[in-house]
Specification:
With 486 residues, this protein is α/β, with parallel strands linked by helices. Among the domains are: 198 residues, 3-Layer(aba) Sandwich (Rossmann fold), CATH 3.40.50.10610; 127 residues, Tetratricopeptide repeat domain (Serine Threonine Protein Phosphatase 5, Tetratricopeptide repeat, Alpha Horseshoe), CATH 1.25.40.10. Helix content is 50%, strand content 7%. Strands 1, 2, 3, 4, 5, 6 and 7 form a seven-stranded mixed β-sheet that branches. Helix 3 packs across helix 6, helix 8 runs antiparallel to helix 9 and helix 13 packs parallel to helix 15. The N terminus and C terminus are likely disordered.
């Protein structure tokens, strides 16, 4: 199988590679030849949606084909730079974290050299429509870049796209290479590859257009890119922070280093340090929505309701935009957090409407139902708060927040036997906590459950219907934020 690896020097012939791709496609088709009845009905919608949604791209680190060891960082650097530039032109690109998570799930190392057949399997696991991979060769003075696009359905492999330049012009050469990739994807529209949504590639001069990417610019400093990549791949936070700060110092207008610094501090629950870095990420950049979301979460944690309201309202306002570069999907986490901001502001009815909308967008999340009940209690409608709490317990019988609210609520309504039955469910010796004050709206507001994790999946094209049904009896996924300190 060594000759099947994309980054070896002993590539098989063109006809052999095409034959392998066809064989792999046949294998995948055979593997799904007996879908469940629901999946059979979904096949026409899969075919139609592929034409209308942007292709989802999975980009692998470029291979260092030279013997210059101090350029090993460039493999990940070219991958990240390709992703950012394609996103700048409207492409849907899976992030580095998505690639690493997929490889870990499949038990594959990130540093391996994968055959085309394995790349197809990885793309299928990651729900990608195409894979971009490449290599670079340098003698220390000049550099040659090469990239290829492997489409998944129908299977096809692009010719190699190459650019050669002096080392000091590396970033400009990469901009030209990325434009060739973009033109290749644009030329594939209408072939069933799901590549709709890319910027139109001009017929003339496209391969020489290195100024078409506004961010990051072709003039990006190479040392800034190196510090970013070493900061992303570092093993400890302190060295990562030092490298990312240096990248930001070298390229003050580049928003990627500030975003990554903001994430490190946000994960540490250090909002005072995270907020200044997030403020340097423009809302319309690829990382802008997540930076805005995390900014809003920080304002909630700091009890700054007005700023939190503004952050989440701004995200949701973009769902109504007619500009495809500005438009965002309406995702429930933002609705839920906007509702909490309005609880803090004493706008009980408006808060309740946001929680109801969040629950409609994601009916399987009990936290939104708990928050909906809190809004009803704040409005002095205790009877109306019972139903959402009972629904939350049906979704998650172990939901501590729903239980803590429901027991005193039922007692206040005279349903003592029902409250006693729920209290009896607690295991012997379980610690008893003081019940919340149902008559204090301000205290109840701080009992609400915020969504602290930005779900990047909402930023991708709508997913195709699943080909198989979930296994019977499988419990719904729990919110990752459940049980986190508030």
């Amino acid at each position: 199988m060594r000759g099947l690896c994309y980054n070896t020097g002993t590539m098989p012939s063109t006809w052999t590679r095409i034959g392998l791709l066809v064989l792999c496609a046949g294998f995948l088709t055979t593997a799904g030849a007996r879908p469940a009845p629901a999946a059979q009905a979904a096949v026409p919608s899969r075919a139609s949606s592929a034409e209308s949604r942007p292709a989802t791209l999975l980009i692998f680190p470029f291979e260092n084909g030279s013997r210059v060891a101090n350029l090993d960082w460039l493999g990940e650097g070219l991958s990240e730079l390709t992703a950012e530039r394609l996103q700048d032109r409207g492409a849907s690109v899976l992030l580095r974290q998505d690639r690493l998570a997929t490889l870990e799930k499949m038990g594959l190392p990130d540093s391996a050299r994968f055959s085309h057949a394995t790349l197809v399997k990885i793309a299928g696991e990651a729900d990608a429509d195409a894979v971009i991979y490449g290599r670079y060769v340098s003698d220390g003075k000049t550099l040659t870049l090469e990239a290829r696009v492997l489409r998944i359905s129908p299977p096809s492999l692009s010719p190699p796209f190459t650019e050669t330049s002096p080392m000091q012009d590396l970033l400009r050469a990469h901009a030209r290479l990325t434009w060739k990739i973009l033109c290749s994807m644009d030329a594939g529209k209408g072939s069933g590859s799901g590549s709709a949504g890319f910027a139109k590639c001009p017929a003339e001069g496209a391969n020489r257009d290195e100024t078409s990417f506004s961010d990051p610019p072709a003039s990006l400093r190479q040392d800034a890119l190196e510090n970013l990549i070493r900061g992303l791949t570092g093993s400890d936070d302190e060295s990562r922070i030092r490298l990312l700060r240096e990248a930001s110092r070298l390229e003050p207008a580049w928003d990627r280093p500030p975003f990554e610094l903001g994430l490190i501090y946000f994960d540490r629950h250090d909002c005072e340090s995270a907020l200044p870095w997030f403020s340097r990420v423009p809302p319309n950049r690829p990382s802008g929505p997540e930076a805005s979301f995390d900014t809003g979460v920080c304002h909630l944690l700091r009890n700054d309701a007005a700023r939190a309201d503004a952050a989440f309202s701004g995200l949701l306002e973009r769902a109504r935009s007619s500009d495809p570069r500005e438009k965002l999907p309406e995702f429930p986490e933002a609705r839920n957090n906007l509702g909490i901001a309005r609880l803090y502001e004493g706008k009980w009815t408006e808060a309740g409407a946001e929680f109801e909308r969040a629950a409609a967008l994601d009916p399987g999340e009990p936290n939104y139902l708990v928050n909906q009940a809190i809004a009803k209690l704040a409005e002095k409608q205790p009877a109306a708060a019972v139903a959402p709490l009972e629904s939350a317990r049906k979704l998650d019988p172990d939901d501590k927040e729903a239980r803590a609210l429901l027991i005193p609520l039922l007692e206040s309504l005279g349903r003592n036997s029902d409250a006693a039955a729920i209290r009896a469910e607690s295991p012997a010796g379980a610690p008893r906590t003081a019940p919340p004050n149902l008559q204090n709206p301000a205290a109840l507001a701080h009992f609400a459950l915020p969504s602290k994790k930005f779900d990047r999946a909402f930023m991708r094209p709508p997913a195709d219907p699943p080909e198989v049904q979930p296994m019977p009896g499988k419990a719904p996924a729990k919110n990752e934020n459940k049980g986190e300190p508030r």
